[in-house]
Amino acid sequence: MADEARGMAVTLLDAVLGEGKLLSQALADLPAAAAPAERARAQRLASSVLRHLGPADRLLAPHLRKAPPLTVRNILRLATVEMAADGAAPHGVVSSAVDLARRGRRTQHLAGLVNAVLRRIAPASFAGLPAQHLPMWLRQPLVRRWGRAVVTAIEAVQAAPPPLDLTARPGLSAPGEPLPTGSFRLRAPGQVSALPGYEAGQWWVQDAAAALAVKLLDPQPGEAVADLCAAPGGKTLQLAAAGARVTALDISEARLGRLRENLARTGLQAEVVAADLLTWQGGPFEAILLDAPCSATGTIRRHPDLPFVKDGSELPSLVALQAAMLDHALGLLAPGGRLVFCTCSLLEEEGEAQLAALLERHPELTVERPTLPGVEPDWIGAEGGLRLRPDLWAEAGGMDGFFMARVRRP
Ligand SMILES: C[S@@+](CC[C@H](N)C(=O)[O-])C[C@H]1O[C@@H](n2cnc3c(N)ncnc32)[C@H](O)[C@@H]1O
């Protein structure tokens, strides 16, 4: 029998690869009646296929004379990845794939092909194939900048499901292995809400790289601090837990709902503002965090659908928005105040070049270089920004890609 999760995984793949939907959107479109555990398994399966799509297609190619319809291709890809990458027993996987094909009106005539192809592929040769490549629009500038070896290392990290990182409140610890920068890491977390300390709000989920932006800002108890693109609020929680008086602003009411839930669970306080930063007036603030909207190319290991849905065409408008946000945010900063700008992007335009352009527009600013526990000197660029890449700490499971820099006004 084809199980429900595998059927939903194929639906998710059809939506991402056929309709260009984000996985989060496709998940929201699944039938409301589907059991949460089956939805979660479908998401895991679809994510695994997206992480290994290139290698799976290479295993399948010699056995397909012409490309079958997308749903059949996705049934084949799912079964191939389950057998080759996830180590599932072939018998159950093949019979489930054949059942899935039989169930669909437009796929049932190809059930025999699914059976024949899956019996012929060689899962063992998967291990020798290169990891899924980044899309060319992203790969090329990264190869030019860091070379092929670094990009290959980034792709290797992105092929594995990411670990789960937790940030603990100051003075407390969280489940998992402590990391050099102060976060905690779980390799196989299971259900997050069942982990000790979740209910009491002793920690929250936050990638170790993302957690460094607030550490770089170094909020002090009682300081007036603005988090200007705040939702869903991982960094707001860090600022509030440090004892700062936090204003958390975001344009999205829906995302602010999640920020309010996070504050309620942890019992932390912040003034929450729903507004467009570009026109909002407030402050002055002693410290500002600007975690601006960006290409999110540093988060592909968590969002393996991004390379199939994005084509880089949004980049110029994102870069312009970030620059406008930076200029507006500087006007909210008190004399002598500091601002941390960060993006979860791998691209120079949204990081090092954005900082260089800011300093050209505002020569009065000075960059304050990071001096943080666990941060290696060669992660810091000539201009004083911190460049984090997924292949750093590769042995321990990597980290999200980020750029962050701290500037101070006179
Ligand atoms: C990278 S996310 C922020 C993540 C957040 N700092 C965290 O750690 O959880 C960027 C945020 O910018 C918000 N945003 C986009 N345009 C905005 C605008 N014009 N004004 C305020 N917020 C905006 C988005 O709604 C999104 O929540």
TrEMBL record:
Question: Which Gene Ontology MF annotations are present?
Answer: RNA binding; RNA methyltransferase activity
The chain positions of domain SAM-dependent MTase RsmB/NOP-type read 126-410
Enzyme Commission identifier(s): 2.1.1.-
User: Where, by residue number, does S-adenosyl-L-methionine bind?
Assistant: C229, A230, A231, P232, G233, G234, K235, D250, D291
Q: Please indicate which superkingdom the organism of origin belongs to.
A: Bacteria
Q: What class of enzyme is it?
A: transferase
Keyword S-adenosyl-L-methionine present in the record's keywords: the answer is: yes
* UniProt KW keywords: Methyltransferase, RNA-binding, S-adenosyl-L-methionine, Transferase
The active site annotation covers C344
Alphabetical GO biological process terms: regulation of DNA-templated transcription; RNA methylation
Its family remark reads: Belongs to the class I-like SAM-binding methyltransferase superfamily. RsmB/NOP family.
- What's the protein called, per UniProt? rRNA methyltransferase RsmB
